[in-house]
Write the structure tokens for this entry.
Amino acid sequence: MLRANTVTIVGAGLIGGSIGLALKQRKLAAHVIGVGRQAASLRQAKQGGAVDQTTTDLAKGVRRADLVVVCTPVDTIAPLVRQVAAACPPRCLITDAGSTKAPLVEQLKADLPSGARFVASHPLAGSEQRGPEHAQADLFQNRVTVVTPTRSTRAQDLNEVTRFWQALGAEVIRMSPEAHDRALARTSHLPHLAAAAIASATPRRYAPLVASGWRDTTRVAAGDPELWRQIMQSNREELLASLEVLQDELAAWHTALEQDDSRKLLQLLAKAKRTRDALGN
Amino acid sequence: MLRANTVTIVGAGLIGGSIGLALKQRKLAAHVIGVGRQAASLRQAKQGGAVDQTTTDLAKGVRRADLVVVCTPVDTIAPLVRQVAAACPPRCLITDAGSTKAPLVEQLKADLPSGARFVASHPLAGSEQRGPEHAQADLFQNRVTVVTPTRSTRAQDLNEVTRFWQALGAEVIRMSPEAHDRALARTSHLPHLAAAAIASATPRRYAPLVASGWRDTTRVAAGDPELWRQIMQSNREELLASLEVLQDELAAWHTALEQDDSRKLLQLLAKAKRTRDALGN
């Protein structure tokens, strides 16, 4: 997609607002419509220039859309996509920005109207912040967006969704919903869980003794609890498997410390550094 | 201490180099001498303006010092403080910048020359980077430095070391070496261990799917393995106790996920967010 006439964003928070800003700034859409439940949030998105028009009426908001992007919490995406599909023009392309994909495509497999053009997406962007006031036009620039086609996805729809994210500056990777969820359990959901556990393991009285290491390691734990509950629960089995891998790692550390094993501790630290250096930047 | 004539920094890396830069920039010392084993590193510290003179001869480097700061890896601090005390003028004040304190003061208790003026310190500053090329004059500005007096520490020595760190911009907190090590196990050493375990739990093939959450959570794991092995091993018992607290936290997460318990997951996430919000910034 390059130059759609009307794009409707359902859920004008950090992600939705950033999509709107990027569309406007790159002149990729003539009209950007923001749909949401909270009038205050919609007003803020409009004032910030992320959307041209707003409405709390979903059917009205998607009636003339060429593209609809659902950017709401994970648990609400499937029902909203159904409502969008029932109310938008037949040619309208629908995607989303949810953090888990397999349960979503599974829920939608059976009951989307035949011919509905839905392809699931996950832009790997965002932060512990929320709301359109934190939206940024370059949020997707040089970041990965995963697009997760299924067997029933049409090539044309997949290509259009791919071009949409690329037009926002993203690098698009295609994977199955299941492969996505397995990988993200390890690269996103497990780090969030662990950051939360480390934060909770810190007594409040130690506040003055917290430095940048603690702050970096626990940063994501400031994220919205209900959003993350939904993400974790919707990827429960993969997250459990990942948690068990972490628990095994920590058991190896425990043994090394208990045995005062210099060689093993150095090995564990060196292995972690190699992975961090290879994957981080 | 404000306006010493000669300050000698033993170990001109990130911390030592930053102390030198701060001393020079704030005009707190007429001469700053860098002592180290690696000529290349010393040259870099001098070129960067962190020290005025350099030497690989410790005795020569401290011979006229009013203050010596030992900024070397944890395991080397006690023997170096002994050597400094044997070679420096009787009035010279000695401190350090090591990440653990109880084993250091224990090692030095018996065998410092009587009258030696040593007070242990730990500036909570630094990063996963190393070397004088990463030194910054404002590294200690508005950061905490913990000073850990013992029963035999003289009030005057404690006050001078306190004023030294304050002169570099630090906020000084005084605690016993044991209380320091107990707290830092939780606020620094455990987060490092956990970050390393999370990094190691990430298969390399997931590199393209790593985003800012993973990078923040694992950042400190890029630190130098041998430095951190020494820190962890010198605080082994407190770190083991902290690790067990984390393992219990993770066991609670495991149960909540296994039982698909929405309420408990939300509780765990909300508790972590409260702590992160209270302690981070």
DSSP finds eleven helices and nine strands in chain A. Chain A has two domains: 4-175, 180-279.
